[in-house]
Specification:
7 strands, two-stranded antiparallel sheet, disordered C terminus, 19 helices, Rossmann fold, five-stranded parallel β-sheet
Length: about 475
Amino acid sequence: MNDPKFRKTLKDYLIARFREIEHPVAPFDVSRSLTLDIESAVDALLAFLRLPTAVAEAQDLERRVLSSFKQYLSAEETEVERRLHAASNLVLRLEPFLKKLFALRHPDSEVPSSFKKLLQSDVAGYQSEKFLYKPTEEDLLDTLRQQRTEDAILHDAYCFRHIEAHEAKTFLPMREQRCWRSVVAAFLLIAMRNVDLIPAVRDRVESAARIRLGLRICLENVRGRFDDAKWHNEYYIPLTIDRGGRLDEYISAFLGDQTNRLAVVAGRTGAGKSTFLERLATELADRALATLSTEMADRLLVPVHLELKRYVPGKRMYLVKKLYKEFDPRGMLGIETRRVAYWPQVISPTSLLVCLLDGLDEVPSAAYREIISEIEALVADFENVKVIVTSRPHAVPDHWNKSLVSITPLSSAEVIAYFGYPEHLNLLAPDVQAFLEGKSGGNHPNALRGTETVLHFDSSFSPSPPWKSPQCPSGH
């Protein structure tokens, strides 16, 4: 069946629907669901179907399997009988599929003639102590409920294989859908179990496993760089922004946005920009590490943190290469030197690399235009990259204003109220502590001026933009 357009339709359907495989009789129990490397499973399945074979029953396997899928996908949801007919045709192909794989894996062995023995072989891997049999529907549900998900799927498909035509006509839509899911999942699980027989897919799976191990080490390195005691205490105050609301909520929405890939956070010295980025780096690293442990490595938010004062101008693609060295200093990802410039795509084109660039205002004026250009290239060149830049207001270029949010300083009332508590006074300079200890409430301008100085919210100094400095020509 040479139909590239339908193959693409089928692949998209399988990837969308079977990335997570539910237990046949406990579909809403997330703890029993399997997360599949669905792209590899689908590629392996399609490759197995195309391979030539000496097994007589599998000679026309590809055409028959694709025909069953085509019939099912073309049927309306209300056409239960037509969809059930497609599922019945597909399950009949499961036994010749197993024979074909057994012959590939054991070319010198005789292929078992029993469907049950094929399922119990290393090709399919049925392991349950509950022997395969065809019980009543009620007994079947109880049997499946006691089995691990892989065995339950194979057992369910086995039983559906032996359903008589007159029995199938009595199926309700829910049972028809369960049988279809079990049969398709059986094909995918068996294909993935034998992926080592398809070299191209096997190599990709092994590479992904190496990347996953390297990512874990790199994320632990990110996590270990910062001391989170400074914000995991009662004194940390969440930052607010000029657009209203909290900065952490704004950034969370930004990371989930499918369109915007650049966010600029401005604030005066001491406003909390660097602390916020450090906190974000550790929280994203913690979340990514937890996600890795659930084997959902294609859905990661991968943080990489860089202080821009360490930027070195004049080197081609310096920023993206420096970010890689910062994230993977020991080369645990195993990315070849010639591919470092494209490393965001190498780690996983479906994961999101979150570049946290701290201190645009600390870049030397001579390198200012170059770093702006590199940041913009980073955003433009990689669809799986988001960039968050912090800076004092004077260093933010005008054409970034649409991506700009500004941290709002604490109000006078908030400063006085916060530092009015005796247990908070040790955060202040001794002279300010002494001043506040002598006051008992009310509006104290002198005290406020002192605390604002300590908090670095004094706005008396505002440097000129770097593109207007003596070392750089006027204009941007």
